[in-house]
């Protein structure tokens, strides 16, 4: 097991470059299954989810070659040729480690009219059903069955139709889009998710020759095309990574410029941090985050919502910050019912937080104290590192492999900002 050892109390200072967006990249890679010619994807983050997806593509028969590595932010460029693939069967060992393995279902259904993929893994933050993905595939004419943990989808042909998603789901919106781009006729997805990566994936597919309109709004219209070509594409910046550094900067009373971001994607986070008293200056592609040491940050209420609301993926990092802000903050998690597993760990460090169902009431304390804590999922890991950066003394964060799922060069990036942090391997 690897753990991070953090000596708290250092104010983060300097500049940090944000990598490509995990949640976009993990959809773009499976989307290449639809391409009728090779694709090049730039600005892929060097995270374990991408390594696993690349391996799955290779195991499925695609040719994936590394085009280059950016040493500053760790991003990669991949040349991906899926034209050699003839079918798609991703077994349990291939699919279990990440959520996004389910995108092979939509993409392969679109191309081969058939796919078999084991039930996806991903962060354990709630039940995470996939009924809306299945509803969309069935509406397009596929039959779907689940046996021994393997999801099988098959259609003689796919025919466009109107699909109303019962809840706003990022995964279902992308999966249905992937399945529908080569269906006969027109598909309309209503109550679609509007997250920036929906737009990124739609742009990628359109660059291959798809006809998708309305991505980024809650109605997406897709005119099916007979075949798709290849595409060169650059992944959009990771607003969750950016938000994590903004929160870490605020938490340590620091002064950090977060570069290579699209500030619009972070409006809800910027607004909340400003409400707490953090000074934020927006440039075209950067956000400067600064805390005025004479004024204590005040607590705020957070309600996680679908985009453009406050992202659930930043709720855990933000609750670490709120645990030392003045007054009481109420955090309502509306997306995932099991996303408070980090709270027990924060309490070990002295936080005063009461969780009742989907609500956490946080009463700010003067200081957190270093402790040995265990990450239970990706953003829990980020929240515990932020807590460690603020705490008095030394914090050890165990299960740091979760962090590697979503943060490219995390340790190096915060070290560059002055953090006293290092990684050690210990016997399990
Ligand atoms: C790889 C990826 O992009 N992961 C992101 C994606 O996860 P993911 O795509 O799994 O999240 P969804 O947007 O689908 O989930 C939203 C809500 O809908 C529910 N639901 C979803 C699908 C379905 O068929 N049935 C159903 O009930 C989920 O349990 C959850 O309560 O969006 C989440 C919400 O922004 C983020 O936290 C994750 O980081
Ligand atoms: C929940 C997350 O990821 P995944 O959906 O891949 O588990 C996340 O990125 O915070």
What do these coordinates show?
The protein has 428 residues and is α/β, with parallel strands linked by helices. Helices cover 31% and strands 26% of the residues. It is built from 14 helices and 24 strands. It has helices at residues 22-31, 48-59, 92-95, 103-112, 131-139, 170-180, 196-208, 239-251, 267-276, 315-322, 342-348, 378-390, 401-404, 410-416; strands at 2-7, 13-17, 39-44, 63-69, 76-81, 89-90, 114-118, 143-147, 150-154, 162-164, 186-190, 211-213, 219-223, 231-234, 255-259, 279-282, 286-290, 302-303, 328-332, 352-356, 359-363, 372-374, 394-398, 420-425. The strands form six sheets. The chain has a four-stranded mixed β-sheet, with helices on one face. Helix 1 (22-31) packs parallel to helix 7. The radius of gyration is 21 Å and the shape is globular. The N and C termini lie close together (6 Å). The structure holds uridine-diphosphate-N-acetylglucosamine and phosphoenolpyruvate (PEP).
Task: Spell out the key features of this protein.
alpha/beta; 428 residues; binds uridine-diphosphate-N-acetylglucosamine; four-stranded mixed β-sheet; globular; cell wall biogenesis/degradation; UDP-N-acetylglucosamine 1-carboxyvinyltransferase activity; cytoplasm; binds phosphoenolpyruvate
């Amino acid at each position: 097991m690897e753990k991070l050892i953090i000596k708290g109390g250092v104010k983060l200072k300097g500049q940090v470059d944000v990598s490509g967006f995990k949640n976009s990249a993990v959809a773009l890679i499976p989307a290449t299954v639809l391409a009728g010619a090779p694709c090049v994807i730039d600005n892929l983050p060097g995270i374990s989810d991408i390594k696993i997806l690349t391996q799955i593509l290779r195991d499925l028969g695609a040719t994936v070659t590394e085009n280059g590595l950016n040493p500053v932010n760790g991003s990669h460029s991949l040349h991906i040729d899926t034209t050699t693939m003839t079918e798609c069967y991703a077994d349990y060992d291939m699919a279990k480690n990440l959520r996004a393995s389910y995108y092979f279902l939509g993409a392969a259904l679109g191309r081969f009219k058939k796919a078999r993929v084991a039930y996806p893994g991903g962060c354990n933050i709630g039940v995470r059903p996939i009924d809306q993905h299945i509803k969309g595939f069935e509406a397009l004419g596929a039959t779907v069955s689940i046996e021994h943990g393997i999801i099988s989808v098959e259609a003689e042909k796919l025919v466009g139709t109107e699909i109303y998603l019962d809840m706003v789901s990022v995964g279902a919106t992308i999966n249905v889009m992937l399945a529908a781009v080569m269906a006969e006729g027109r598909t309309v997805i209503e109550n679609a998710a509007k997250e920036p990566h929906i737009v990124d994936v739609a742009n990628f597919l359109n660059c291959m020759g798809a006809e998708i309109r309305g991505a980024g709004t809650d109605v997406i219209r897709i005119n099916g095309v007979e075949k798709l070509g290849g595409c060169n594409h650059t992944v959009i910046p990771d607003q969750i990574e950016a938000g994590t550094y903004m929160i870490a900067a605020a938490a340590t009373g620091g002064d950090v410029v977060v570069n290579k971001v699209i500030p619009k994607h972070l409006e809800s986070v910027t607004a909340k941090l400003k409400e707490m008293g953090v000074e934020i200056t927006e440039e075209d592609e950067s956000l400067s985050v600064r805390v005025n040491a004479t004024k204590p940050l005040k607590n705020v209420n957070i309600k996680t919502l679908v985009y453009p609301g406050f992202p659930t993926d930043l709720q855990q990092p933000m609750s670490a910050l709120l645990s030392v802000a003045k007054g009481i903050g109420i955090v309502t998690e509306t997306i995932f019912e099991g996303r408070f597993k980090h709270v027990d760990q924060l309490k070990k460090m002295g936080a005063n937080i009461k969780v009742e169902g989907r609500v956490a009431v946080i009463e700010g304390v003067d200081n957190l104290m270093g402790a040995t804590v265990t990450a239970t999922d990706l953003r829990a890991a980020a929240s515990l590192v932020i807590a460690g950066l603020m705490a008095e003394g030394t914090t050890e964060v165990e299960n740091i492999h979760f962090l590697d799922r979503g943060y490219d060069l995390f340790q190096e990036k915060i070290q560059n900002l002055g953090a006293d942090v290092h990684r050690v391997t210990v016997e399990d």
